Each structure stands twice: as structure tokens, then as C-alpha cells.
Amino acid sequence: MAIKIKIEFLGGLDIISNSIREHKVTVPFEEGEATMKDLINWITKNIISDPKDIPVFIENETVRPGILVLINDTDWELEGMEDYVIEQGDVFTFTSTLHGG
């Protein structure tokens, strides 16, 4: 079985995914078994268009500091971070808080 979710890249972070801000995807995970850690790994392999951009998103095998992560509009720290279990229809938002100026 697969899980349908939405992934958003905001605050300029869409640059890592060919400037596409919203991705409605079906991920090849079993509902109730896959975690946010699995999703982060899947994103680096399937959405980030240039391998050189992976360090913009990932540091020490997790989302790098300076990127706000929301799971269904709730801070991922309140949802268990990498241990959050992915569910059908979830919305994952990654927003860069680091802006040039």
C-alpha cells in the first residue's frame, strides 16, 4: 500500500526542487510503519533535483537548523520529529527561516 501526502517547500527552499513549492505525492510506504525519518530520506532521493542541494536540506541525517518543519500545521517538535509516523493525507511543510537581504 502507498500513502498520499503533500510536501511544501517555502521561504525560498523551493530552489532545491526545481522551484516547485507544492508536491502532491504518493510515497511507497505502509501506513503506520513509515516515519518522518523515512520521508526525509525519500525526499532527498526523489524530490531534491540536484544532489549538491542535499546539504541545503539535510545536516547530520536530519533537517538542518534554520528550516522550520510543520506536520499538518504543527511544529514537528511537538509531533515527535523524526519519529512521527506518517499517515494518509498528511501535509509536511519545510520553510527556510534564513533569508538573504
Automatic annotation (TrEMBL):
Native source organism of the sequence: Candida verbasci
Position of the Glycyl lysine isopeptide (Gly-Lys) (interchain with K-? in acceptor proteins) cross-link: G101
Main location: cytoplasm
Primary role: Acts as a sulfur carrier required for 2-thiolation of mcm(5)S(2)U at tRNA wobble positions of cytosolic tRNA(Lys), tRNA(Glu) and tRNA(Gln). Serves as sulfur donor in tRNA 2-thiolation reaction by being thiocarboxylated (-COSH) at its C-terminus by the MOCS3 homolog UBA4. The sulfur is then transferred to tRNA to form 2-thiolation of mcm(5)S(2)U. Prior mcm(5) tRNA modification by the elongator complex is required for 2-thiolation. Also acts as a ubiquitin-like protein (UBL) that is covalently conjugated via an isopeptide bond to lysine residues of target proteins such as AHP1.
Assigned keywords, A-Z: Cytoplasm, Isopeptide bond, tRNA processing, Ubl conjugation pathway
Pathway the protein takes part in: tRNA modification; 5-methoxycarbonylmethyl-2-thiouridine-tRNA biosynthesis
Residues passing through the membrane, by range: none
Coiled coil: none
One Gene Ontology term, aspect cellular component: cytosol
Residues the record lists as 1-thioglycine modifications: G101
Localization annotation: Cytoplasm
Protein name, per record: Ubiquitin-related modifier 1
PTM comment, free text: C-terminal thiocarboxylation occurs in 2 steps, it is first acyl-adenylated (-COAMP) via the hesA/moeB/thiF part of UBA4, then thiocarboxylated (-COSH) via the rhodanese domain of UBA4.
Lineage, highest ranks first: Eukaryota, Fungi, Dikarya, Ascomycota, Saccharomycotina
